[in-house]
Amino acid sequence: MQTQVYVDETKAKGYVVAAAVVAAGDIDAVRRSLRGLLPRGQRRLHMVSESDPLRRKILAALTDEPVQVDLYVARAAHRTNIERRHACLERLVADIAADCTLLTLESDETQDRRDRQDLALLTRRAGCHGLRYQHQSPYAEPLLWVPDAVGWAHARGREWTRLAAPVIRRVVSA
Hints:
Blueprint: E1 3-10, E2 16-23, H1 27-35, H2 52-63, E3 67-73, H3 81-96, E4 100-106, H4 112-126, E5 132-136, H5 145-156, H6 158-164, E6 168-173
Parallel strand pairs: 1-4, 3-6, 4-5
Antiparallel strand pairs: 1-2, 2-3
């Protein structure tokens, strides 16, 4: 099954890269569903900015969607966020090499260039020459709202982790 993967990070409690995996045939339907959650006048969902009732609604809605999220947690041995991100991306690329056709990362001007350099190396190492990767704004790509929501919930713990658990496929140490 061919998939696409959408990536965001959280640094709230440790360094975690959340990767939402969606089958290629489900992408348009999931985008439509996510856009349907937007409050009037709002251009994107961002868990940090949402009310608790909307956060609960978002996490509940995700459990009804054909999406799974892998969480890549950087080990304490990595000293900087640059090393942590590289380690998480390295594990992620190795894991998705066989099935993923497109990897979309949330754009951040401070790290996009480094990501492109790292991904060129990591995809070559993993032998996945057909994997394309890109950076997008969460305003342009609603599927980036999924790893934002699940990564946020995982970092918040307790009730939030429980609500996100149905879509979390695995937690991987990187």
